[in-house]
Specification:
Structural class: alpha+beta
Organism: Vulpes vulpes (Red fox)
Helix content: 25-40%
Oligomer: single chain
Number of helices: 21
Protein name: Pseudouridylate synthase PUS7L isoform X2
Largest sheet: 9 strands, mixed
Keywords: Isomerase
Catalytic activity: a uridine in mRNA = a pseudouridine in mRNA
Pfam family, one: R3H_PUS7L
Length: 665
């Protein structure tokens, strides 16, 4: 297995707190040997049933709403809402990823009601003659386009006349564009003029007319948080052309991304472009009560069980199946890949029934969802009490040159660490796979296009980054665009990962330099009962020379800062280590507030020592038959250690095991 040599050296140099000898063994022989169960804020394991807490199930959005008459005071909200629901239902349904007659039926079902509504609106706002002339004008434009006849002279126009009421004009603009997406409407001093939509014609050169028709209907409906998906397209250059067209013409309104359409019967997944409206920071217009009620966001909580699967890969798969994007999921923290893990999650814009409908499909990816229920809001990072671990250490044996009874060594180690453990942040990574080989190629060549050909299609976030670098180049602007290709929650995770890595190394340096003594210049937490890393700076105190001499503070009160703009560093060798390390990484002037990157990290403090809770263990004998000589078989028993414990949030089990075993992995 390939390793980052510098990383391995830094990991191996981490100090130990306890002084027992320890033992050797193998962890993560299989995912079932490493089980992680999240502990929620109430102290409950998330894999336990919450059936008694399930709230009522909300119905799926549908297009059952009908109007018996036009109300010109509210029609813009009601009409738009009804049509938008049709568009959203069509685009977010799993059937959108299918092909053939079934997909066509879905499209027809989604648009027929809307077209009837537009006929109803136009019939109420336009006289019969104008309505007929509009229809004739529309079909005349379409006929010329279909016959490849070029429109001679200036673009033809058709006037709908002057509409004095502003609200009625807005309704008419939308009704025309919804019924005839290949037309556009322009306002001139209360007059509405209809023209051919040349962008529609341009898009028809790239996609089918059916797709162009539905896309412009979607675009005009402006349904917040909705999405539109083009048909799957395996031609990368063609997808790039579609991306370019949509972003060039409508980039201020929408964003595009490519997602794999997972098909287990196919050798490679199909790729489809998904379009989604950008989030609006400010809303200036008032909304009707009907619209506010219709736009209420649905949040569905569930427990995710995954096996030997990276969390972001799991989210990408769930997003495809549910017709949302990965950033619609929220969670309290990351979980190991080579393990069986249970964690709480919340997905927005998906009802409990819809999530239950994909239970069977996701089992193929070694995932399960249960404890499905409606909730009022999403999860936030750190919204957990900790994690419970059930771990099997196999092939347990003595350290080299240690002849003491192995069982005594194991008992000594576990009893010792029950009261002492280092809270360190490390995520050792297995580099022997196609994904990391692609990453290594990129680091060696900076060839984004070549790396894209090596990166598996299911690695959505890596491919999004590489697409941006390929599009914008290996420049500062290209790197900024690549950074923003990640969802906000993922960007925060990477910042936290670097900060935690630095914090981890700082703890190692602090312990190797000063040991368990509290020295002048250390930072300590004054609140002895605090159990949270987000305590205020007023609780952090700088140890004086007099306090060191008087042994005023204990080692468990020592804290170190996690990088940010609102923290102070120790005033001793550890503080200088922070400065040297940031200089090494080119961040000596970084204040962790970078507007161009939307980077705003205040920082926090963490105690360097934490205790594992509820530690229990059991030794197991495994008999292996070994052929020593011809015709002679000897049964040799090997020991395995089954150990369980709880750790607070952000504590890593591998570090706790390292302290128990005195052995680097």
């Amino acid at each position: 297995m390939e390793e980052d040599t510098d990383f391995r050296i830094r990991f191996s140099s981490l100090g130990f707190i306890t002084d027992h000898v320890g033992f050797r063994g193998t962890i993560k022989s299989s995912p079932s040997d490493f089980v992680v169960i999240e502990i929620d804020e109430q102290g409950q394991l998330v894999n336990k049933s919450t059936s008694g807490l399930i709230s009522k199930v909300l119905p799926e959005p549908n297009n059952f709403a009908k109007k018996t008459k036009l109300d010109f005071q509210n029609i813009s909200c009601q009409e738009g809402s009804n049509q938008e629901v049709n568009t959203f239902t069509k685009c977010s349904d799993d059937r959108n990823h299918q092909s053939g007659s079934e997909k066509e039926d879905t499209i027809n079902d989604g648009t027929s009601t809307g077209e009837e509504e537009q006929v109803h609106v136009l019939g109420n706002l336009l006289d019969e003659k104008t309505n007929d002339l509009l229809t004739h004008f529309a079909f005349d434009i379409k006929e010329k386009w279909n016959s490849k006849t070029e429109l001679i002279g200036s673009s033809p126009e058709f006037s709908l006349g002057r509409i004095l009421d502003k609200n009625q004009r807005a309704i008419l603009h939308s009704a025309v564009r919804q019924k005839f997406p290949f037309l556009i409407t322009v306002g001139k001093n209360s007059e509405i003029v209809v023209k051919p939509n040349l962008e529609y014609k341009e898009l028809c050169h790239l996609v089918s007319e059916e797709e162009a028709f539905d896309f412009f209907k979607y675009l005009d409906a402006k349904k917040e948080n909705s999405k539109f998906t083009f048909k799957p397209d395996m031609n990368k250059d063609h997808r790039k052309a579609v991306h370019h067209f949509v972003n060039k013409k409508f980039g201020n309104l929408v964003e595009t991304k490519s997602f794999p359409e997972l098909n287990y019967n196919a050798a490679t997944p199909n790729i489809a472009i998904t379009v989604r409206f950008r989030e609006k920071k400010h809303k200036h217009r008032k909304r009707s009560l009907f619209e506010c009620r219709d736009q209420k966001v649905i949040y569905t909580a569930f427990t995710l069980r995954k096996e030997n699967l990276e969390m972001f890969e799991a989210l990408g798969f769930l997003a495809i199946k549910l017709g949302v994007i990965p950033s619609d999921f929220s969670y309290a923290g990351l979980k190991d890949k080579k393990a069986i893990t249970y964690q709480a999650m919340v997905v927005r814009k998906v009802s409990p029934e819809r999530l239950k409908n994909i239970e069977k499909e996701i089992e193929k990816k070694r995932m399960n969802v249960f404890n499905i229920r409606s909730v009022d809001d999403s999860l936030r990072l750190g919204q957990l009490k900790g994690n419970h671990f059930d771990i099997i250490i196999r092939n347990v044996r003595n350290q080299i040159n240690d002849s003491t009874n192995l069982r005594e060594r194991i008992l000594e180690a576990i009893e010792n660490v029950k009261v002492k453990a280092v809270k360190l942040f490390l995520t050792p990574e297995d580099l022997d796979d196609p994904v990391n080989r692609a990453k290594k190629y990129f680091l060696q060549t900076e060839d984004a296009k070549g790396t894209l050909s090596l990166m598996p299609e299911f690695k959505v976030r890596e491919r999004a980054l590489l697409e941006s670098l390929h599009r914008f180049g290996m420049t500062e602007e290209g790197c900024i665009q690549a950074w923003f290709s990640f969802p906000h929650s993922m960007r925060i995770f990477y910042i936290h990962a670097y900060s935690s890595k630095i914090w981890n190394e700082a703890v190692s340096y602090r312990l190797s330099t000063y040991g368990s003594r509290v020295v002048e210049g250390d930072l300590v937490c004054l609140d002895k009962d605090i159990d949270d890393e987000h305590f205020p700076s007023s609780k952090v105190h700088l140890v004086t020379e007099e306090e060191e001499s008087a042994s005023t503070y204990a080692i468990h009160q020592v804290v170190l800062p996690v990088l940010g703009y609102n923290i102070q560093y120790p005033k001793n060798k550890v503080g200088q280590w922070y400065q040297d390390t940031l200089s090494r990484d080119g961040l000596q002037t970084c204040r962790f507030k970078v507007p161009t990157l939307k980077l705003n990290v205040p920082g926090c403090y963490r105690q360097i020592l934490k205790h594992p809770h509820n530690v229990s263990y059991q030794l197991m004998e495994e008999h292996d038959t070994d052929v020593k000589t011809e015709g002679s078989h000897i049964d040799e028993a090997t020991l395995s250690l089954q150990i369980s414990f709880n750790l607070d949030a952000s504590c890593y089990a591998t570090v706790c095991l390292r302290e128990i075993m005195k052995h680097d992995f």
